[in-house]
C-alpha cells in the first residue's frame, strides 16, 4: 500500500548555467547536473524506495536525470514513459536568449511579468496557466491512476511542469504558485490517500 509519487526536477542544464531561457530547447546536463541527479538517486536509495514505473518529459535533461537516478537505485530496467506533455513551459521568442539581454530588450518589468505571472505568456510561448492545462490532464489520465493502484511512481521533469502538479498536490492557487521554486535534483516524496489527496510530503534535501 504505497501510493507513492516522487517528483524530481532535472539537474542543472548547460543553459541553466548560461542563464538562458530554455523551454523546449534541448541542452544536456552539466557536470553539476549529473552530480545532482546521482545524488537524488542516492537519497532515494537511502529511503529504501523501489519504483514500479517512471514518467519523464521529451527533453534530454529530464531523461538523463532519470537514467542517472535509475543507475543509482539499481533499477535500470524500470518501465519508462517519455511524454511531451511533461515538457518544460514553452518560452516562445525568449527561448535561447540570455535573461539579462531579454531585460534590456523588453524591460525588467515586462520580463518579470512573463516569468512570474500565472496567465501572461511571452511572445509565441506558453504561460504557466497554459503549461498547467497540458500537464494536469496527462497526470490525471496516466500518472495518478498508477499511483492509486498502490504503485510507486517516479516523475522527472521541469520546474514549470512540476509546479503544475504542485498546484494540485499542495493545494496552491494561481496567486501563490508563481512564487514557488523547485530545487534541481531534489526529490519530493508524496504519499497519497485512496481519494488522491496528499497523506504526507517529504523533501529529500541535500
From TrEMBL:
GO terms for biological process: gluconeogenesis; glycolytic process. It is an enzyme of class 5 (isomerase). Keywords: Gluconeogenesis, Glycolysis, Isomerase. It catalyses: (2R)-2-phosphoglycerate = (2R)-3-phosphoglycerate. Signal peptide: none annotated. Its EC number is 5.4.2.11. InterPro entries: His_Pase_superF_clade-1, His_PPase_superfam, PG/BPGM_mutase_AS, Phosphogly_mut1. CDD domains: HP_PGM_like. The active site is at residues 10, 88. Substrate binds at residues 9-16, 22-23, 61, 88-91, 99, 115-116, 159-160. The record marks 158 as: Transition state stabilizer. The keyword Secreted does not apply. Pathway: Carbohydrate degradation; glycolysis; pyruvate from D-glyceraldehyde 3-phosphate: step 3/5. Catalyzes the interconversion of 2-phosphoglycerate and 3-phosphoglycerate. Belongs to the phosphoglycerate mutase family. BPG-dependent PGAM subfamily. Homodimer. This is 2,3-bisphosphoglycerate-dependent phosphoglycerate mutase. It comes from Pseudochelatococcus contaminans.
